[in-house]
Amino acid sequence: MKHWAIKVTILSFILSIIFAYISDKAVSNLSVIPAIIILIVVILIGVIFDIIGVAVTVADESELHARATKKVKGAKESIKLIKNSSQVSNICADVIGDICRST
Question: What is the mean predicted confidence (pLDDT) over 20-25?
């Protein structure tokens, strides 16, 4: 568990630096319209990752097992995400979503 916390902390720090640098450098030299587009893209990234985090948390694994037996594309990956739902939700919703909202 300690290793997981260290990895998330490092990931959060690196992503915060990257998003802050990109948003600061990219927006400071642009006119209003491109700056708004970049802002919308960052917000959409946060929203998409929040959606993924919530979806993984509330998904039903039994339905995906049925799809995996029928060899539906993405079912096996979905099962892996659901089995690790606490970590996926933490990274998607808490780390990336919050970083995008704070940028």
Answer: 78
Which residue blocks in the chain are alpha helix, DSSP H? 2-28, 32-58, 61-69, 75-83, 85-89, 97-102
Whether the full predicted model's pTM is greater than 0.85, yes or no, is no
The whole-angstrom separation of Cα 49 and Cα 60 is 19
Residue 30, phi then psi, degrees to nearest 5: -110, 160
Distance CA(81)–CA(75), nearest Å, equals: 10
Cβ contact 23:41 at 8 Å:
no
Q: How far apart are CA 74 and CA 72, in angstroms?
A: 6
What's the pLDDT tens digit per position in 30-69?
788 888 888 888 888 888 988 888 888 888 887 778 887 8
Q: Are 81 and 1 in contact (CB under 8 A)?
A: no
- CA gap 63, 66 in Å, rounded: 5
